[in-house]
Specification:
The chain has 248 residues and is of the alpha+beta class. It is 53% helix and 7% strand. The protein has two domains: 89 residues, Glutaredoxin (3-Layer(aba) Sandwich); 104 residues, Glutathione S-transferase Yfyf (Class Pi), Chain A, domain 2 (Up-down Bundle), CATH 1.20.1050. A four-stranded mixed sheet has the order 2-1-3-4. The chain binds glutathione.
């Protein structure tokens, strides 16, 4: 016997809502998986809270969403010159990064290693990868040294006279002007997307105001800096580098 029109409509709509409920159930997002024990144990960063170079490596790991343990190395107590640290970093400096059984040093080299092995913030083409290397070498050649020296002087960690201060100031401003010019052409330094070059150079530019360099004179650099700060996972040095060791 044919169903009366009303009953047929009711049963149709009931089966429709059962179907919808089923779909909603299956569309439920899978429970987000936390990092595995192997991921948690992979990296230990040795550093110092006030160290921009330690921050650069921590920032790379944070942006790559990779957990890491952190060991505080007291530069004040000279821990970086002790034998147990020199086996990790022959140069007696922070940072050092343990990746599994291997210790890596020199922040720019660490960034390149992370980009390559994590497959994040690396260049997408051989040309982009060449540009990452080129900019990170430039960063240490022209930008980092004058900015960090001026910052250290302002914080009372280095003493030098006005002549040297003016020299570093001129060098730092000339380097930031090169960056400003390049950033008129593209949003990111070495590729179409942010790469290790942006992270490394950000780790210097962030501290330019501590060297009495006002970034307002460099609008493209300022806009690029804001783009980095808007990336998911971004965190400031005080959020990433505790004053004490922290194990994950
Ligand atoms: N080029 C090195 C520089 C490292 C560096 O200068 N580290 C500072 C702290 S930010 C340090 O350990 N200073 C103590 C020293 O050199 O004795 C890098 O990128 O890792």
């Amino acid at each position: 016997m044919a169903k009366p029109a009303k009953a047929a409509a009711k049963s149709k709509s009931a089966s429709k809502s059962a179907k919808a409920a089923k779909t909603a159930k299956s569309a439920k997002p899978a429970k987000e998986k936390g990092p595995s024990a192997a991921e948690k144990n992979r990296f230990t960063l040795y550093g110092f809270a006030g160290s921009p170079n330690t921050y650069t490596v921590a920032l790379m790991l944070a942006l790559a969403r990779h957990p890491f343990s952190y060991i505080h190395v007291s530069l004040r107590d000279g821990a970086h010159k002790q034998a147990d640290f020199l086996v990790k970093n022959r140069y007696g400096q922070v940072p050092a990064l343990r990746d599994g059984q291997q210790f890596l040093v020199q922040s720019a080299a660490i960034l390149m290693h992370l980009a390559e092995t994590l497959g994040k913030f690396d260049g997408k083409t051989p040309h982009e990868r060449e540009r990452i290397r080129e900019w990170l070498f430039w960063q240490w050649d022209k930008l980092a040294v004058p900015v960090y020296r001026l910052r250290a002087r302002n914080r009372g960690f280095r003493q030098f006279g006005d002549e040297v201060r003016v020299m570093y100031d001129t060098e730092a401003r000339a380097a930031i002007a090169v960056l400003e010019q390049d950033l008129t052409k593209s949003e990111w330094i070495a590729g179409k997307k942010p790469t290790a070059a942006d992270i490394g150079i950000y780790g210097v530019v962030r501290f330019a105001p501590d060297a009495n360099i006002d970034l307002a004179h460099y609008p493209h650099v300022l806009a690029w800096k804001k783009r980095i700060e808007a990336l998911p996972g971004f965190a400031a040095p005080e959020q990433l580098l505790p004053l004490e060791s922290r194990l994950v």
